[in-house]
Amino acid sequence: MFDDPLLWARLQFALTAGTHYMFVAFTLGMAALILVSQFSAVLRGDGARMAAVRFWGGLYAVNYGMGVLSGLVMELQLALNWGGLNDVFGHVFGAPLAVETVAAFFVESTFLGLWIFGWDRMNRWAHLAVFGVVTLTAYLSAFWVLVANGFLKNPVGFEMRDGVAVLTDPVALVTNPSALLAFGHVATSALLVGGLVMAGVSAYHLRRGGDPEGMFRRGVRRGVLVASLALFPTPAVGGAQYALFGAPPTSGTTLAEAEIERIEAAGAGTAPVLAEAGNAVMVLCWTVFLLFLPVALLAWPLRGLDRWRWLQWVLPVMPVLSLLAGVGGWVYRELGRQPWAVRHHMTTAEAVTELSPGLAVTSFVLFTGASAVLAGITWWLLVRFARRGPEGGPLAPAPPPDDGVAVPVHTY
Amino acid sequence: MESVAVLFLVGLLAGYFVLAGCDVGLGMLAPYAARTPAERRRLVFAVAPYFLGSEVWLVAAVGVVAGLFPELEGEVVAGHQPLFVALLAGWLWRDAGLWLRGRLDAPGWHAVWDAAVVVGSWTIALSWGLVLAVLLGGGTLSPLSAPVCAVAVAVLFLLRGAAFGAERLVPADDRSGADCAASADTAARATRVLARAGLVAVPVAVVAVWVDGGVDREAAALAGAVVVVGALAATAGLSGPHRSRPTSAVAMAVLPLVAAVGGRLPVAVPDSGSATLVALAAAPMLPAMVVGQVWLYRMVRRPAASSGFFA
Ligand code: HDD
Ligand code: HEM
Ligand code: HEM
Question: Where are the domains of chain B?
Answer without folding.
Answer: 2-300
